[in-house]
């Protein structure tokens, strides 16, 4: 039977799959996209952004919902780990925004790498919170 908790966690994991998994997939495809044409990577990134940003905001909303639902755990080490997750989520969104608005290839590379690393970090820390 489907519970509200199961639905909440499913939506959160689905959004994380799009945000994190999509970044990994797109990064792996960049060499092939470049070979297809100079503008192809940018077009693919723009298409990805149409689903990635809504997924990011769903992650934030369901993340808040998760914290509210697990309010009895909001103390001690759990709260400290949650604080780390907040920092990583903000860094992931901020560096993704910077990547999308980068003016040079160097900026794109740096912010792209930081976005991926912080997204993976947030995913890992989220698993720590759920364990």
From TrEMBL:
The keyword Membrane applies. Keywords: Membrane, Transmembrane, Transmembrane helix. The chain crosses the membrane at residues 6-30, 51-69, 75-97, 109-130. The keyword Membrane applies. This is Copper resistance protein D domain-containing protein. It comes from Nocardioides baekrokdamisoli.
């Amino acid at each position: 039977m489907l519970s509200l908790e199961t639905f909440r966690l499913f939506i959160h994991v689905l959004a994380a799959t799009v945000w994190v998994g999509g970044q990994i997939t797109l990064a792996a495809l960049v060499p092939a996209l470049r070979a297809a044409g100079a503008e192809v990577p940018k077009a693919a990134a723009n298409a990805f952004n149409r689903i990635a940003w809504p997924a990011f905001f769903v992650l934030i909303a369901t993340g808040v919902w998760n914290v509210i639902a697990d309010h009895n755990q909001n103390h001690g080490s759990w709260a400290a780990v949650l604080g780390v997750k907040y920092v990583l989520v903000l860094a992931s969104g901020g560096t993704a925004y910077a990547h999308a608005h980068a003016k040079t290839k160097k900026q794109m590379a740096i912010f792209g790498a930081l976005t991926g690393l912080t997204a993976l970090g947030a995913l890992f820390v989220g698993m720590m919170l759920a364990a």
